[in-house]
Amino acid sequence: MALEHALLVSLSEQDASGYDLTRRFDKSIGFFHSATHQQIYRVLKRMDEAGWVEVEAIAQDGRPDKKMYRVSDAGRAELTRWIAEPSEPNHLRNELAIKIRAAAHADLPALRREVARHRDGHAARLDVYRLIEKRDFPNPAALSGSSLHQYLVLRGGIRVEEGFTDWCQEVLDALPTGEYATEDTGEYATEDTGEPATEDTGEPATEDTGEYATEGHLQS
Asked: What is the CATH code for 3-84?
C-alpha cells in the first residue's frame, strides 16, 4: 500500500490540513501504516499534482495560510480502484522468532529478557488499543458506516497484540531458567553458582529438622 492511499482513506473520512493528518497518523492510522511528518507533506504535494485532492487556502492572522485538503472526484476514483485491487497476505518477518529457534546456542537469561521486553511492548500497545476501544466505541452493536469500519480495524489490532503477548508469555513459560547453552553441543547446562555441591550420604533425615543425621546421632 502506498502512503497516498492511506491519506486518501483519512481524507475521505474528514477534510484535514497537513498538520491534522500528521496527528491522525500519530494517534490512529499510524498504528497500521507509519509515516514521518515530512513524508506526509511530500506525498500531499504529489497528490495535489495528480489531481487526487483539492486544496483550499485558509487565511490565518499573523500566520501563513493553512492548506485544507479534501478528496477530489479523481481521488475517490483512485481509492475505489485501489480497494478493488487484490492485496497479498502479509508474510510474518519476525526476528525474535528466529532468535528463539536458535535458543540452543543462546545465553538463555539474555534471551528471556529479550522475549519479556517484546511481551511488555505488545502488552503496552494492547492497553492503548483497549483504551481507544472503550473510549470511542462503547456500543459496538450500534455502529455503522465509517465508525464500524474503524472499529473492525481496531479489533484486528487488538487480536494481533493479544496473540503476540500470549505467545511471548508462552515462550517464557517454556524456556528453562538459569541455564545457558554450551558452546560445543548446544545442549543446556545448569548455570554454575560457585557454591560447592553437597555430598549425598543417603542417610535418613531427622524427624524434627528434616536435615540428614550423622552416624553419631543415630547411636544410643
From this structure: 1.10.10.10
Could you give the CA distance from residue 55 to residue 72 in angstroms, rounded to a whole number?
9
- Cell, residue 2: 502506498
State whether residue 137 is helix, strand or coil: coil
Q: Report the alpha-carbon distance of residue 46 to residue 5 in Å, rounded.
A: 12
Rounded to whole angstroms, the Cα distance separating 37 from 113 reads: 33
What interhelical angle do 108-136 and 145-174 show, nearest 10?
160
For the entire predicted model, the pTM comes to: 0.72
Distance of alpha carbon 69 from alpha carbon 114, whole angstroms: 43
Per-residue pLDDT of the chain (220 residues; tens, 9 = 90+): 589 999 999 999 999 999 999 988 877 787 778 788 999 999 999 999 999 999 999 988 888 889 999 999 999 999 999 999 998 887 778 899 999 999 999 899 999 999 999 999 999 999 999 999 999 999 999 999 989 999 999 999 999 999 999 999 999 999 988 655 444 444 544 444 334 344 444 444 444 433 433 333 333 3
What does each C-alpha distance from 172 to 58, 111, 168, 179 come to in angstroms?
55, 9, 6, 13
